[in-house]
Write a structure and sequence with these properties.
The complex is a heterodimer. By secondary structure, chain A is mainly α. Chain A contains twelve helices and no strands. Chain A has one domain: MetI-like fold (Orthogonal Bundle), CATH 1.10.3720.10. Helices cover 73% and strands 0% of the residues of chain A. Chain B contains 14 helices and two strands, in the order ααααααααααααββαα. The chains are: A mainly alpha, B mainly alpha.
């Protein structure tokens, strides 16, 4: 575990102080803080950072709300719930490459996709899913949501199993409505699991790249490029490994900052209920 | 009654949104290239003539590759899911039942350290893995990929198992202790069975994570230990995308994961613990 985590961390930190480039055969040189100085005037990095925060904030919030609703709905003893539990898990089992290509590219295609076709049949205007900068961001979030809501549902469903039945039954006897029971008993008890689910999903969402590369290629312009996609382009396409590592470290700092903040806020919310 | 109706309507809408893309993958696997890229077509026979070309490719030309990739995927994903969940359960149990102190580190900090392992973008660490694995002769081996995926999954399984154990009532463990059960006995006979939904959730998560991982598989394997995502990606070429083959392979790849989901679903739901408290 230590070897798997510490070595890559130190290795890429070391890279940031060098001029290592995949394509240019320049002798290895230590350049001090040159890469880090470049970071602060890099507008592309800033834009991709903002995009990433939108993807994470928007996507994870929607996925949590939907996952919570699905998990609660599938925990009420409906006849069809066992079948549905399995079926709702399926999207996260589909390979992200296939999700990107078949769903992102075909289903949302503006030329031959069924969604615009169906909108047309309903007399609604076509939507520029990938060519409009504003909409393209939502297309990415939608595809991401389709794939990853099942994970939220899974983790919350597991959390629901650990909730004791007595307080719920007692509240029901006292005449509490289902909504009150959910709001004041179930939801507070789900908070620890919710924190884990949101954190897990957010950490993965911060690294979003596959869907973007396939569906929009980061475009139009830079409207849907994430930091990870930017790091990939700088490192693998331009070969500038040293600068790519520096940009990756910026993302790491942002993620650590956001995680600390999120955990702090969620713990405060939790403390209010205790 | 009204609540049930709303619940059912919501589930129905969610089911449609979930299944339409899956249906689309299914029918795409039976379409010709022309039927795919000209206009959207929805119903076989009515809209387009189904063809078996994609599936024929899968079962003849690509058969050996498909079998090898699925075998590798199963071994690597299954192995890492089991190991990561076992280690995650051990760490998660420790973090909920004991208070650790190491200088200024507390349990919360240890848990955060675990999860922080997943914060660095994969593109930034894959190169380090490549060097490390070459040095250890783990490149292009199932063991190597299993180790990597286990390492990636552990931070998450620790958190999932920590929550699962936190929900197991302490009274149960204490009364078992009073009855003379050993610490190991309490863990294996009381806590672990009660945390079974967490174990299953964690296994499913770790399995799916490894099942679909692409970047590290691409960098760390090239022939013997290649997994299904690599095969999928090979259907997308600079000459165009083989949509039908891609779809057929996607469905084939979905089947083992879906079977696992069906097998494990019953353990996701725990029998209420009230009975055992009395």
């Amino acid at each position: 575990m230590l070897a798997l985590s510490i070595f890559p961390l130190i290795f890429s930190l070391g890279l940031t102080f060098t001029n290592v480039n995949l394509f240019r055969r320049t002798p290895l040189r230590f350049v001090g803080l040159e890469n880090w100085a470049r970071i602060f005037s890099d507008e592309a990095l800033l834009e991709t950072l903002i995009n990433t925060v939108i993807f994470v904030g928007g996507g994870v919030a929607i996925q949590y709300a939907l996952g919570l609703a699905l998990a609660v709905a599938l925990n009420q003893g409906l006849r069809e719930q066992r079948l549905m539990r399995v079926l709702f898990l399926l999207p996260m089992m589909v390979s992200p490459i296939a999700v990107g290509f078949i769903i992102g590219r075909m289903v949302f295609s503006e030329g031959f996709g069924p969604i615009n076709d169906m909108l047309d049949a309903l007399g609604l205007p076509a939507v520029a899913w990938v060519t409009s900068p504003g909409v393209a961001k939502w297309t990415i979030i939608l595809v991401d949501t389709w794939q990853w809501t099942p994970l939220m549902m899974l983790l919350i469903l597991v959390g629901l199993q650990g909730i004791p039945g007595e307080p719920i039954q007692a509240a029901r006897v006292d005449g509490a409505s289902e909504w009150q029971i959910f709001r004041h008993i179930v939801f507070p008890l789900l908070l620890p699991v919710s924190i884990t689910a949101i954190l897990i999903r957010a950490l993965e969402a911060f690294k979003i790249i596959d869907i973007i590369r396939v569906v929009t290629g980061g475009g139009p312009g830079r409207a849907t490029e994430s930091v990870t996609a930017y790091v990939y382009n700088v490192g693998a396409k331009q070969g500038d490994l040293a600068y790519a590592a520096s940009a990756a470290y910026v993302l790491l700092f942002v993620v650590i900052g956001v995680s600390f903040l999120a955990l702090y806020v969620m713990r405060r919310v939790q403390a209010r209920y205790e | 009654m009204k609540g049930r109706l709303i619940t059912r309507a919501f589930l129905l809408a969610a089911a449609f949104v979930t299944f339409f893309p899956l249906y689309w993958i299914l029918i795409t696997s039976f379409k010709t290239q022309l039927d795919i890229v000209v206009n959207p077509t929805y119903l076989p026979w009515a809209d387009f003539m189904p063809t078996l070309e994609g599936w024929k490719w899968l079962l003849t030309e690509a058969r050996a590759d498909v079998i090898r990739a699925i075998t590798n995927s199963l071994i690597v994903s299954g192995g890492s899911a089991v190991i990561a969940t076992m280690l995650g359960a051990a760490a998660g149990y420790g973090l909920t039942r004991f208070q650790y102190r190491w200088r200024f580190w507390r349990n919360e900090d240890i848990a955060f350290w675990f999860i922080s392992q997943r914060m660095l973008p994969p593109v930034a660490i894959v190169l380090a893995f490549l060097l490390m694995f070459r040095w250890l002769s783990l490149l292009d081996t199932q063991v190597g990929l299993t180790i990597a995926y286990t390492g990636f999954a552990i931070p998450f399984t620790v958190w999932i198992m920590r929550d699962a154990f936190a929900q197991v009532p302490l009274e149960l463990e204490e009364s078992a202790g009073v009855d003379g059960a050993s610490a190991a006995g309490i863990f294996f006979r009381i806590s672990l069975p009660l945390a079974l939904p967490g174990v299953v959730g964690s296994m499913l998560f770790a399995f799916v994570f490894a099942w679909n991982e692409y970047l590290f598989a691409l960098m760390l394997t090239f022939q013997e230990a290649t997994t299904v995502p690599l095969l999928l990606a090979s259907r997308i070429t600079s000459f165009g995308t083989h949509w039908d083959q891609l779809s057929a392979l996607t469905l084939t790849n979905l089947i083992p994961a879906a079977i696992l989901g069906i097998m494990l679903e019953r353990f996701l739901i725990r029998n209420r613990t009230e009975g055992s408290l009395k």
